[in-house]
């Protein structure tokens, strides 16, 4: 009989008990249902990343004793979740005969007007903890505490502690049109779509046009875009939008210089210089081969310096100052990191690199800031302008009557040498990176090279770092997609020096993180989509839906045991699409580009013939299901090349038959592109995130042409249910 759980002998081992107490998985169930135990040395390494010593048997026992005592070290946990509209109870670790008292200060600074009552808790029998006896009382948090991040102050005897009380809605409510029907939109890697006025890479002005045109010309209600998190200030720029420098800020390389308000006030000479810089990269807009971000930024950055040095009106300076005050210490961290990169060079993991030698409190960093005040302010200014232009794009979407407008993508983590990690190292676990275990599409597993947030730090600080990220994204978006949403529950930690397979899951407080998402989405009247592909335990999918997050239904992945589900049987609370950015567009997938490319890059665990045979079975099974459902004509299968567009539209027609609340078509499928944007498991072996939008014949499709394109118009008619 196949083993499905750990033996009692294994469960009795101190190392296993310590790992479980610290939220470290000691086994997992793989995509095919296989039971996989985690090796001891992996557990020891991951515990070390959490600051727990398990290097010897004696260390394990000592860490177990400390972990047991930690449960009673605070009067109440540092972070508390309260569901608005429901009464909740907070357990207090008070000594016998001590009576707790508490007050609640709301996020606006006012005190909750009613007293916080204390009642007997569940633990009637005193627990000996060291030389103390702990008995649990409970504080009653009233149902009418408003939404927000509040401060609960608890006093027992002569001891007082503060905790963050997060009052969140039970779930994210569906938008009104989604309650009785669905909304549809486009998915775009918007940097890949250039206009005649672009600087070689799609920018915020292009995004603004795309949003307006997608609504006016196709009737779309949203546009799901790649992450726009902050990147490097100087070349070479990291191509992947999923490996940002900071998730707290916006990528200022997407600024359109001519759209900065101060550009209009420049002298003729200054405008001519910016025009000259623009001309040096304008021809890249017609390059269908590869996006050149470095050429773009080498031209655009001096243009932005020209605008910055021209100054601002007093009113605009006040707006800039207000932005800096609101962004606070995190902006100082990012701007300082940019300055250090600018003057000291790209940070590396090598000994002697400034990121290894200096921290935020180093004298050298203070001297750098005082030596280059204008450059430091330039990087603050770039963030302000980027924030303004992204806000303008979303306002354009609302002005065009898009229901959601922008749906921004949240990356799993950040660059290990980025500003978030350097300025605030205490937020992260060291000696580990995040990735994913092996699955069918990535048989070696994945290592995303991102240090994980430390769950202990998050809990100790009211999850403020995570709150700021989510609130920042909803400031200029009607929706947020969470890449690898299972990271709200657990992340696959890979100890330094090990392969992607040699990791394990570390668990997070999903209730609190989902509560924060529900709170920020409710405040923004927005939606949240959780990318829940891959190895997803059933309880996690249920929890996401219970909190009002939509999952993902990818048509190619909606199968079990080689049989595709009818779209009518898909989950209702999903964003449904035919494809995703990690596999080729549909025109490429139908011609087995995913097999050919993986074989070319030596990513297959078996032979090309075996993988191709599996791919053909999958291909035939999907098209057979579509033909049975009347979404395509069976005769088209006799000449798929001739009926490529018909087949792609038929696959999207199937989306419209599903109960999914959000439907999405990619602009790559709209124009017939075949090349994948990203091939997981590669870095420089493939030009990931550098593929310009082109049609099936390799001709560039511009922003101006995109939503007037006959093929795009035809697919839009399918998405509207008209064809």
Automatic annotation (TrEMBL):
Q: What are the EC numbers?
A: 2.4.1.25
Quickly give the catalysed reaction: Transfers a segment of a (1->4)-alpha-D-glucan to a new position in an acceptor, which may be glucose or a (1->4)-alpha-D-glucan
Key words, A-Z: Carbohydrate metabolism, Coiled coil, Glycosyltransferase, Transferase
Which positions are tagged coiled coil? 267-294
Q: Does Glycosyltransferase count among this protein's keywords?
A: yes
| InterPro entries per record | GH, Glyco_hydro_77, MalQ_N
Q: Which family does it belong to?
A: Belongs to the disproportionating enzyme family.
State the name under which the record lists this protein: 4-alpha-glucanotransferase
